[in-house]
Design brief:
single chain, alpha/beta, Rossmann fold, 7 strands, Ubiquinone/menaquinone biosynthesis C-methylase UbiE, methyltransferase, S-adenosylmethionine-dependent methyltransferase activity
Length: 272
């Protein structure tokens, strides 16, 4: 008996509704340093054509533009694109933001010298199709650079916690698989030569575990959306579960949170 095919389009509609709920940039803007480190690891050059895939509010696109690259950001959540445009305008950075699906990017083959994504493309439900698109739009000899949360890190545990309250759709692989060299190898095969695979840590800093929980419930769209479906009693339990993730990875003893979240920084060369 064969299983029914996964309806990726319906899943993406639900995902988009999640990202358009809350105010994700309130979380995403704190991750700017990941994008700065990623474009440096990719050795971005002035004048290069750079695409930030699943760009959200444009962290990596802005980082590339600061280095005088010709930066473009693509995302399917139009509210996040608008915030990216606002950020670029404030910083006087010439970034182009385009509505686009990571699994069907609206660009010709080989359009970019560098294609990047910071904890973005990993959420595309069809991993293989998203990887194929990254390769397609990158010019032969160009680079692909990705920053992805790992399964065993703080955010990997956060996603497991959320999954206990809202199990992912059947047939959809966990996004944190992108944070493993083995999965990247399986997705990209011989098309990409990975020249750097480094585990890094981003430190989430909040007033307290409860503050971490509240911030994600208020602003991290998918969690905000889930929170709105819970009863008062369940919401209290869910809130405590999120706070417990912060406690588990916290490094401080003063009541605040400095939680180290592991991610994989991957840089590869697109073979011709």
């Amino acid at each position: 008996m064969t299983s029914a095919p996964v309806d990726f389009e319906s899943i993406k509609k639900t995902q988009r509704a999640g990202w358009e709920t809350g105010d994700y940039p309130r979380v995403g803007n704190t991750l700017q340093i990941i994008a700065e480190l990623l474009v440096e690891a990719a050795d971005v050059r002035a004048g290069q054509r750079v695409l930030d895939v699943a760009c959200g509010q444009g962290n990596a696109a802005l980082a590339a533009a600061r280095r005088f690259a010709e930066a473009t950001g693509a995302d399917y959540a139009v509210n996040l694109l608008e915030q990216g445009r606002e950020r670029a305008a404030v910083e006087h950075l010439p970034v182009t933001f385009v509505e686009g699906d990571a699994e069907q990017l609206p660009f010709p083959d080989g359009s970019f010298d560098l294609t990047v994504s910071t904890v973005g493309v990993m959420f595309a439900p069809d991993h293989q199709r998203a990887a194929d698109e990254l390769v397609r739009v990158t010019a032969p000899g160009g680079r692909i650079a990705l920053a992805s949360w790992t399964p065993t890190g703080m955010i990997g545990h956060l996603f497991k916690t959320v999954g206990r309250w809202a199990p992912p759709p059947a047939g959809v692989r966990p996004p944190v698989l992108w944070g493993t060299p083995e999965h990247l190898s399986a997705l990209f095969g011989e098309r990409v030569e990975w020249i750097a695979l480094n585990k890094r840590e981003y430190v989430f800093r909040y007033h307290s575990p409860q503050h971490f929980s509240e911030w994600f419930r208020r602003f991290y769209g998918p969690i905000t959306r889930l929170s709105g479906t819970l009863s008062e009693e369940d919401l209290e339990r869910f809130s405590e579960d999120l706070a417990e993730v912060a406690r588990q990875f916290n490094r401080t003893d003063d009541g605040t949170v400095a939680g180290a979240a592991e991610y994989l920084e991957a840089v590869g060369v697109r073979r011709g």
